[in-house]
Amino acid sequence: YRQKRLREGAFENFEGTVDYIDAERGVVRVIVTIFGRSTPLDIEYWQIEKV
User: Fold this and answer.
1) Which of 1, 12, 32, 35 could covalently link to 16 via disulfide, CB atoms 3.0 to 4.6 Å apart?
2) Given CA atoms 40, 45, 46, 51 in this order, what sign does their dihedral have?
């Protein structure tokens, strides 16, 4: 999947890679590197944008 930027929240402006899309719930799992570790974040569609 493609790189995305988080638009809002505690991780605003972090960039990550889409790992999973749950269309039924309107949620996207984005893998973000935080403190050198890959961390999955489940966020809503509107909270991400293309890089």
Assistant:
1) 32
2) positive
pLDDT higher than threshold 70 for residue 1: no
- Asked whether the beta carbons of 48 and 6 are under 8 A apart, the reply is yes
Enclosing domain of residue 33? 3-50
Q: How far is CA 35 from CA 7, 8, 14, 38, 46, in A?
A: 19, 19, 12, 9, 25
What are residue 6's DSSP bridge partners? 48
Query: pTM value?
Result: 0.84
d(CA 19, CA 40): 8
CATH for 24 = 2.30.30.30
Q: Which pLDDT tens digit goes with each residue over 8-49?
A: 989 999 999 999 999 999 999 999 999 999 999 999 999 999
